[in-house]
Amino acid sequence: MNLLYTFDLLGTAAFAASGALAGIRRDMDVFGVLVLGLVTAIGGGTLRDLLLGDIPPFIFKDETYLYLSVAVSLLVFLFHRRLAFLTHPLTYFDAVGLGTFVVIGTHKALAFKLGFFGAVMMGVMTATAGGMLRDLLSAKVPMILHKEVYASACLAGGALLYVLQRSAVPPDAAALISAATVIILRLLAVRYNWSLPRAAHRTP
Amino acid sequence: MNLLYTFDLLGTAAFAASGALAGIRRDMDVFGVLVLGLVTAIGGGTLRDLLLGDIPPFIFKDETYLYLSVAVSLLVFLFHRRLAFLTHPLTYFDAVGLGTFVVIGTHKALAFKLGFFGAVMMGVMTATAGGMLRDLLSAKVPMILHKEVYASACLAGGALLYVLQRSAVPPDAAALISAATVIILRLLAVRYNWSLPRAAHRTP
Amino acid sequence: MNLLYTFDLLGTAAFAASGALAGIRRDMDVFGVLVLGLVTAIGGGTLRDLLLGDIPPFIFKDETYLYLSVAVSLLVFLFHRRLAFLTHPLTYFDAVGLGTFVVIGTHKALAFKLGFFGAVMMGVMTATAGGMLRDLLSAKVPMILHKEVYASACLAGGALLYVLQRSAVPPDAAALISAATVIILRLLAVRYNWSLPRAAHRTP
Questions:
Q1: Are C127 and C45 in contact (CB under 8 A)?
Q2: Transmembrane residues, as ranges (chains A, B, C) (predicted)?
Q3: DSSP result, C50-89
């Protein structure tokens, strides 16, 4: 699964960059920027491992994730003006991370014998909890709860993986197809500015 | 303990509804409303199981809680205007959930050999952490920390259960009496608008 | 390690007082003040134990921490005007807590076979996560992410302990030197108003 690991690190770097940028926007100091980058990149997977009881969490078994997150956050802190040309590619890397994290999370939850709902929830959480923590630490309502088709892409990918793993499709193909589904849905959502319905709650 | 399970589901549904309503009020999209409903309904029990080391948490052993929470949240999202007549009964269901969750949490903590303080704290946390998470995700100071006699009712019920379990009272009666105490205190607090004292901290 | 335990309790009391004061400032009721005191005092160590898989967390094995935190918070709630003369000493106690918590956290993480990054991160988290939770529950951006040299002192102490534990220095001396480093750095930072660099992100 070397490809998956590469994607995983790419996604981790993209998430760390998004966290570090959020810290800079909130006028945090360098420590705050590093914490936001770290939490965004590894928060989802860490929460997943806590809930599955896979202790210590993955970040302590392979510290690559920690060093990578902090290195990326530090680069963003130092050179964020000169890295502005990366904003556009970042959307792609972020989508790759999203797809990869959903597949890793759902797959791991199924290996831990969780049911359909639990496994898909774990996949979505792996991909989205880091971003929620980032927004909470910025004292903002998590972006994912009111903006953009972000979680729905994850839900679709997680559910698809569940189905494919129970079919004749080879495991690697199932993982690839599910991740690709998340990535494509996410990029289409960005491209066409899709958003989810809201309740019409305002009283006149 | 079939009655307890019924009460548990009733409380879960009431908590999910309160979470979903909070999401609608914050203008979240349908995913956000589902997440808030889910988190409010199952957050307290999940945190309790994490702290007790009962992994995976109850929600993954019996997915009924997950499906129920999401179904209720979805109904609230779709029909919240037409469900306005349920606001009043919701207070009662919410109180039933409060009492049930306190008893379940304290009882479980005692079974895991926690001491008096730890067990009562677990009971209160089971009943209140979901609502705190709901408020955090709405970027608000948790309601329970500054308004209403909500936690005190839980504290009283948890402490009572601790005492009764060490007395000659049969276990089922102990659970029922403790839950009823929470429910009655909570409803009296709503009815008579009780609130806890604050520190007079304003400087002139 | 009787000295360490004494320092630990002193730090716990100082952290509880800082949490309770934050609750009073946010106009919380007595329950809210107790919760903020408790969470600030024990949040970091509890999160550490969750992540290390040392379940149940230390607070349930020795309830002294719980009783002490609540007692201090209650005293602050009742007498915070008359305790104003303690504001200055509180800075010292808080620094003692910081140093002690870093050493305990890093030491425990190393005993659980974590690597360099993981162990230092656990030390910093033990000392700072409680304060972050306090600020989150107050719906504020955690102070530590944008103000003061607080985390850096912890980082230095944790890294130092890692190095010393691998050297010929006796364990007790290693702990003492590391804790003292944190405390002195912290007090110097307060005294000379040090702060960390920020990214110059404002566009003209």
A1: no
A2: 6-24, 31-52, 92-110, 116-137, 174-194
A3: HHHT-SS-HHHH-THHHHHHHHHHHHHHHHTTTTGGGHHH
Residue B146 and residue C36: Cβ atoms within 8 Å?
A: no
pLDDT for residue A44 is more than 50: yes
Cα radius of gyration rounded to whole Å, chain B: 17
Structure token pair of residue C170:
């006796």
C→A contacts (Cβ < 8 Å), by residue, are 50-53, 112, 114-118, 121, 132, 136, 139-142, 144-147, 151-152, 195-199, 201
Is A201's pLDDT higher than 80?
no
What token pair was written down for A167? 């079919």
Task: Output b/e per residue, C99-115; b: 16+ Cβ within 10 A.
Answer: bbbbbbbbbbbbebebb
Nearest-CA distance B137 → chain A (Å): 6
Query: What pLDDT was estimated at residue C188?
Result: 92
**Quick one: CA dihedral B73, B75, B79, B84, positive or negative?**
negative
Between the alpha carbon of residue B34 and those of residues B13, B30, B48, B141, C3, the distances in Å are: 12, 6, 22, 21, 50
pLDDT at B177 over 90: yes
CA distance C60 to C62: 6
Contact A29 C201 (CB under 8 A): no
For residue A97, the number of C-alpha atoms closer than 13 Å in the C-beta half-sphere is 30
For the ranges A1-10, A62-71, B91-100, C80-89, the lowest mean pLDDT is seen at C80-89
ipTM, two decimals, is 0.91
